[in-house]
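Lab meeting prep.
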Amino acid sequence: MLIDTVAWVRIEGGRILCARPRGKDVFYVPGGKREGTESDLETLVREIEEELTVHLAPDTAVHLGTYEATGPGLPDGAVVRMSCYTAEYRGTLAPSSEIEETAWFSYADRPLVPPVDQLLFDDLRASGELA
């Protein structure tokens, strides 16, 4: 079983933006699951508007990488695939009703995110983007 997700990578000052959904105790790189036949960018724009109340500029999106991992809390044999993009945005970043809180994480916060997000953290650290 493949759980196909898209994530927005926003790095400022060597820290990456993460969000904790309401009712959960784990932080994630913002984004979510594709609906129907949505493209990666359509999914990304919709999810980020829903979660962080800002509008991404699709023409500025750059694919950073795609990661796959299993993890706790997933059905047996389930794999999460996360396609990661950077993109510029308009508006003021603010958690929506479905997000409990946002935080800016450094590499030291890696244990607080799921395994697939940890792979992204490793690459961002290796490239010098994540403090």
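Slide two material, second protein:
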Amino acid sequence: MKQKLTAGVMSAVLAVASPCVMWFEGMVPHTYRDPVGIPTACYGHTGPDVTLGRSYSADECRRLLDGDLAEAYAAVAQCVRVPVEPYEAAAMVSFAFNAGGHAFCGSTMLRLVNAGADGAVFCQQLMRWTKATVPVIGVKVELPGLVKRRTAEREMCLGHDWKPTA
């Protein structure tokens, strides 16, 4: 049942998005550089509070994940202006978690959602986001992990069970 994204819908959406985010991010209890060199910790947490050499407890990682998911949900809820299915919103939250709320809010996917496009059309837009810029060379390269993640998010967006792939 399509719904406007509100605080009341948040827990249902995050219950679907969270396992996908956790699977693809993995839990790394210390800081590391992601494939394009961004300092990252726990379940894909980035930001000015992430410093190389720091370790985190499982509880700290879960709190960071919960905060990051809430932030991704807030971006999706702010930018989506039409009712959507909870599973569509969950895919959008997973994408916004990974690419950033600004990327989601400026995406063709969002424009299609807000224009009332069919899910089969807007969900396919996720597959356009499989590349990342490698800072050292300034070139976008397709990352196999992003291809797998976007495929899972697309399946989720379409209301299908997503299956993690090795």
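Talking points for slide two:
The chain has one domain: 7-157.
The helical segments are 7-25, 58-79, 86-99, 101-105, 108-114, 119-124, 144-157.
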